[in-house]
Design goal:
Elements lengths: L11 E9 L9 E10 L5 E8 L34 H7 L3 H7 L3 H14 L11 E4 L2 H15 L2 H7 L2 E3 L5 E3 L1 E3 H9 L10 H8 L9 H19 L26
């Protein structure tokens, strides 16, 4: 009697985007996060998470920065220093400090919720098939993800969920795929393509640009770019054999994208 055929594990990826108070993950604040969970066999969206992040202060994290030691008396008090919220960055993302104070959650709570979201949307699978990240210029967002999880003291928990490796200095980083690199592989032969911004890649790939004025819109567009390029990779002789991959739809309102 033949053994029953085992089903292949379902691969899942998390598309990630942050809106921030600046460009430096060491000092700039996270202001908004959006994460989509996607099945990679069909590119079906199986879950979404998004949240504003309430204003928060800087926090010294071991190994993050080298700080010169100074002698202090027991009467010295460290004044709280806010993370950077640059006016230009807030204007670009159409996020105000009032919005963050009214609708934002503490960064520690957001980190806990993102972690639980990832756990809830990760099927049982071997370690070499754990989820990874997808994003447009994802190295930028990965830095802010690490800031958030280090700030919340949950980096070791994140390691259990995502694939990743330690760098030369012993710092762990999650595995990610950058849609800019995928777009360059797919589109660099076209004479009219000299930029790989999200809206330009959508135009060249025939993707309707859906825009909802926040990080969630960027995530939807980024996932769609990855889906179309994946479908091209799966084609044989120029023909795709299989069902069409899922493309997300969202309300349009924003006129620009960050990257």
């Amino acid at each position: 009697m033949a053994a029953p055929k085992e089903e292949s594990p379902v691969l899942v990826a998390f598309t990630l985007d942050f809106e921030t108070g600046g460009l430096k993950c060491q000092t700039s604040a996270c202001t908004q996060i959006a994460v989509h969970a996607t099945r990679l066999d069909t590119f079906e969206k199986i879950g979404t998470y998004q949240s504003y992040i309430a204003p928060y202060n800087r926090k010294e994290i071991a190994g993050a920065t080298k700080k010169r030691k100074t002698l202090k008396s027991k009467y010295d008090n460290d004044d709280a220093v806010s993370m950077d919220y640059e006016a230009r960055a807030l204007e670009y993302s159409a996020i105000t400090m009032d919005m963050l104070e009214s609708y934002g959650k503490p960064i520690e709570i957001v980190a806990q919720e993102v972690l639980q979201f990832m756990i809830d949307n990760t099927p049982k699978c071997p370690k070499n098939m754990k989820p990874f990240l997808i994003g447009q210029h994802i190295a930028f967002d990965e830095g802010f993800l690490c800031q958030m999880f280090e700030y919340a003291g949950l980096m070791n928990e994140l390691k259990k969920v995502l694939r990743g490796d330690e760098d030369f200095y012993g710092n762990w980083h999650p595995l990610y795929v950058d849609t800019i690199v995928l777009g360059q592989l797919a589109l660099c032969h076209l004479p009219n393509v000299n930029s790989y911004k999200l809206e330009i890649m959508c135009e060249n790939l025939g993707i309707e640009l859906d825009d909802a004025h926040d990080a969630d819109a960027d995530v939807s567009a980024t996932t769609n770019v990855a889906a179309v390029l994946t479908q091209r990779m799966r084609s044989i002789g120029g023909e795709y054999e299989g069902e069409e991959l899922a493309i997300s739809k969202a309300e349009k309102s924003r006129k620009h994208f960050k990257i």
